[in-house]
Amino acid sequence: MPTPDLTAVVYNADGLVPVVVQEATTRDVLMLAWMDAEALRRTLATGRATYWSRSRKEYWVKGETSGHTQAVREVRLDCDGDTILLTVDQTGPACHLETTTCFDSREPLR
Amino acid sequence: MPTPDLTAVVYNADGLVPVVVQEATTRDVLMLAWMDAEALRRTLATGRATYWSRSRKEYWVKGETSGHTQAVREVRLDCDGDTILLTVDQTGPACHLETTTCFDSREPLR
Questions:
Q1: pTM of the entire predicted model
Q2: Which ipTM value was assigned to this complex?
């Protein structure tokens, strides 16, 4: 397997990159999370989605406490390198509100 | 039509919110862009995806020059209010590199 080119990732001023998470089978957009370089390294090494929690200021293996894990199928970088698209197999609801996605709990704005 | 609750939108320190853009029919994730309150207002009022360009520091009606417009079907806010999911009918390629999505131009990291 060729070594992925991690130098192409463009982090923001806080050292973070936004990560769009999409379910592989349903193709639902589940959530947006953030990674720093270490969270990305851990995600690639373990195949389990690992984020940086901006509120708790700690690494966060998705589902570690809830059991609602994300097994990573694919990791893609966008054209200008500053957004990641993670394709995952989601176990259980993705949202801490127990909804399928984080976009299900409110009426649409339009 | 009830007035959407725009007070629920949580903007970052720069007054911006990340916007995940998904194609309504193919369900491809097309791109990530950014809106301020005025870009969101214009998007809701016109039904044409309008973003804030962080590099050019100006409003940007998607497809205004390329013709690759995004007609907005739905606008959803996530559980904590700091991410928008835009469902659109995309005309032509979404990416300025002429690929279908902004995630198509590189080898996956995994």
A1: 0.95
A2: 0.95
